[in-house]
Amino acid sequence: MSTCETQGVKVTARPSYLAEQSLPDQNRWVWSYQITVANESDDTVQLVDRHWLITDAVGEIEEVRGEGVIGQQPVLSPGQEFTYESFCPLATDFGFMRGSYGMIRSDGTRFEATIAPFVLLLPALLN
User: Fold this and answer.
1) pLDDT digits (tens, 9 = 90+) for 56-94
2) What CATH class does 2-121 carry?
3) How far is C-alpha 34 from the chain's CA centre?
4) What is the signed CA dihedral for 13, 56, 87, 81, rounded to 10 degrees?
5) What is the C-alpha separation between 96 and 76, in angstroms, rounded?
């Protein structure tokens, strides 16, 4: 799990290994991750885009950019939060993700809310 707060927007990530969707003999490991974006500021904010850096065990980096998340660009009033789930396939049994969400305040100012790095690790390797 990872948590980071940027300008009153707290982003929490919780990854989980999806054994039933993974095919290790074909070099495919799949993780889901649940993200919660909480607006702890005094202003309304909108999540408008995303930027991910996904790194596998051999250092290969995949960069992902796009509008919103899961087809949405949620608007969060002070005290509101938005939670969604997505997934990440890797060609290795270990990796990590980090990134940012492009946010816009009600006055039109833009900032990047940091998504702190979180590890994609097989449960058996946690200890």
Assistant:
1) 999 999 999 999 999 999 999 999 999 999 999 999 999
2) mainly beta
3) 7
4) 20
5) 27
- Tell me which residue of 7, 10, 18 sits closest to 122, measured CA to CA: 18
| Residue ranges covered by each domain of the chain | 2-121
Pairing verdict, β 9-17 and 45-56: unpaired
Type of residue at 120: L
In this prediction the pTM is 0.94
The phi-psi region of residue 68 (left if phi > 0; otherwise alpha if psi is between -120 and 50; otherwise beta) is left
Query: What is the SS3 string spanning the chain?
Result: CEEEEECCEEEEEEEEECHHHCEHHHCEEEEEEEEEEEECCCCCEEEEEEEEEEEECCCCEEEEEEECECCECCEECCCCEEEEEEEEEECCCEEEEEEEEEEEECCCCEEEEEEEEEEEECHHHCC
Q: How far apart are CA 5 and CA 100, in angstroms?
A: 11
Residue 92 token pair: 């290795």
Task: Spell out the residues 6+ positions from residue 76 whose beta carbon is closer than 8 angstroms to its own.
Answer: 9, 37, 38, 39, 44, 45, 46, 47, 82
